[in-house]
Amino acid sequence: MDKFLESFEDIKRVEFSEGEVVLEEGSKIKTIDFLIEGNIYISRNLKDGKRVIANNLEAPQILSLIEVLNGEDEVMSGVFALNKVAILKVQKDEFLNKLRGGELRDIALEYLSKFSYNIIKNSIEYEEYEVEKAILKYYLKISKGSELGIINLKNAFVADMFRISERTLYRYLNSWEEKGLISRKKRSIVICDTNRKKICEFLDK
């Protein structure tokens, strides 16, 4: 992807800290954003006022591509940083001109096919895993992109994502700590290399 990004004339790097808004739902799409570092989650507000966490993604990703290809002018869902995130912003018009010229067609098609495949794969995995293991697998994934394996996610956020109560999540966390799968430092979860090995063994059971 690096070589292909070098072909753009107007490109800007922007960094976001954990919890910051990367893209605001309903905002006008002026750029195509390439996630090159870090993890994000996608959230959408429903008409009844409820917030739904649709997906969580790790770099590399292309943000706003689906909306633009479908002729939409606004961001469909909010995008938030799960940890330190780096984005390369390319002007939408320049991107579309290259796409029409055929330069980006193969890259766009490859990305969309992988994106669709991952959504289906993650959906199947979520159904196959019991909720406890699905959450633990999620923490394991996030820890790999976090410095020193430290995870600073709010319990309310994780409980909301997996549609469980915070009380149930606390029960899982206490159980994992007793089994040596995680350790906790104040409000943070820590997953070191030793923990990762034990988690993989636990998930394989």
From TrEMBL:
SUPFAM superfamilies: cAMP-binding domain-like, Winged helix' DNA-binding domain. One of its GO terms (biological process) is regulation of DNA-templated transcription. GO terms for molecular function: DNA binding. InterPro entries: cNMP-bd_dom (IPR000595), cNMP-bd_dom_sf (IPR018490), HTH_CRP (IPR012318), RmlC-like_jellyroll (IPR014710), WH_DNA-bd_sf (IPR036390). Residues 1-95 form the Cyclic nucleotide-binding domain. Pfam families: cNMP_binding (PF00027), HTH_Crp_2 (PF13545). PROSITE patterns: CNMP_BINDING_3. Keywords: DNA-binding, Transcription, Transcription regulation. This is DNA-binding transcriptional activator YeiL. It comes from Peptoniphilus indolicus.
